[in-house]
Amino acid sequence: MSDHPGEGSSSKRQRTISEQLQESMVAASPPKFISIGDIMNAAKGVTNMVLAHEIALDEDFRLEKQPESKLHKTVKSTVQQAFWDVLKEDLSGEIKIYDKALVLLQEIKENILGLLMPHQTPTRQQIEEVLDMELIEQQADKGTLDFLHYGKFILGIMTKLCAPIRDEKMQELAAEENVIKLYRGILDALQLMHMDFANFTIQAFRPEIQRQSIEYEKQKFKDFLATQEDGLQYTREWLLRNIKPDTYPEGASQRTINNMTLVSAYLELLEWKDENVFPETLLMDQHRFLALRELSEKIELVAAVILVVSASVQTASVSSTDFRKTLKQHTFDIVGNDYTMRNLENNLKILAAKIKSDVQEEIKKSNLPDVSPTAEDLLVRGIEDLFRKENRIRVLIRMRIREFLTTVLSVQQQAP
């Protein structure tokens, strides 16, 4: 009869974190006997750990109602409409039947009580006194139950409790005299209020969650590992892949070697191959690392475009800061908003034509001689060739980005 709110970029769709972790839990063979209860508790712990992690890191974290499939929406709508039709018929006959109305009142009462804070004792007492189900049942038996009256009372309580964003909805319901529409609107509004209350609670407790999240996540991940034969397989492979003895300074300490290995491992995430399984220890932040990978590739492309333009059209106006900002904006607009490797080749052709036009306009505005057809052709082909990751300009810029990040991360690793 009522909805319940749901919880909670790479070139291909990624599974949710808890799905991946829980799948690995089922797939692995435990080193010792582990009961179904232990596995279910660990799976629940993984879900809670992911939720706590997101709340701690994401200042804008909110629970939102999840979109429904067409089938689910159709079935739910049919069932709900059937209920309201029956209720309308029960309350419209000469002999009124209040069975479903009483169940509805009880459900609404419990919903409202669930929204109250511990200190709201007077409101709780008022609700218990007015919505005294024993008294209401007696009224129903005598045929004196004023269902609309109780709906108006409920609405008054909800108006006091709801967030300001729901005021307009409350005002609409206050003017409603059709008892079925009123109660239907009350149930819809209660769902929204529960979502508002949950998000308010999350924000209120977020500082405390942040303080305790590290130890909490450590314990939950430990619980998860206890159900695995090797719960760190892919983390180990990731780290081993980045042990590079040839790059270590002569006589380097173990701490230096460890730090250099970690820096190399984290930089690998900026060029992560989708066919590789993500390290277990980083799964909760997988979407963040993949977003950084995409951003890094976009920055690489912007820098490459600017270099191609500067090399192809060697005039001061084209190398100016303002024009470079224009190049950056157009590159992000055309390539960045629809960034996948599948679309990149075609988007770069569109970008090349746009930048060729930009260059011509800039040259004309500066009263300079037209760019030669050879230079224009070099410009267009240079931009279109940036589709290839092994393009020499892109490789050079990628290397410079990696060197810069290596320096930054190395300094941070050495900090006490």
What's the layout of helices and strands?
Layout: H1 17-27, H2 36-57, H3 70-92, H4 99-113, H5 121-130, H6 133-142, H7 147-161, H8 167-174, H9 179-225, H10 233-241, H11 254-268, H12 286-312, H13 321-334, H14 341-365, H15 373-384, H16 392-414
Helix pairs in contact: 1-2, 2-9, 4-7, 7-8, 7-9, 8-9, 11-16, 12-13, 12-15, 12-16, 13-14, 14-15
Structure description:
Helix 7 packs across helix 9 (179-225), helix 12 packs across helix 13 (321-334) and helix 12 runs antiparallel to helix 15 (373-384). The longest helix is centred in the middle third of the chain and has 47 residues, at 179-225. It is built from 16 helices and no strands. 69% of the residues lie in helices and 0% in strands. Mean pLDDT is 82; it is low at 1-18 and 20-39. The protein has helices at 17-27, 36-57, 70-92, 99-113, 121-130, 133-142, 147-161, 167-174, 179-225, 233-241, 254-268, 286-312, 321-334, 341-365, 373-384, 392-414. By secondary structure, the chain is an all-alpha fold.
Over all CA atoms, what is the radius of gyration?
Answer: 31 Å
Cα separation of the termini: 58 Å
Give the SSE order as H and E letters. Answer: HHHHHHHHHHHHHHHH
> What does the overall shape look like?
elongated
Tally of helical segments? 16
Q: How much helix, percentage-wise, in residues?
A: 55-70%
* Quaternary form: single chain
The low-confidence parts are 1-18, 20-39
Question: Could you give a quick summary of the protein structure above?
Answer:
With 416 residues, the chain is mostly helical. Helix content is 69%, strand content 0%.
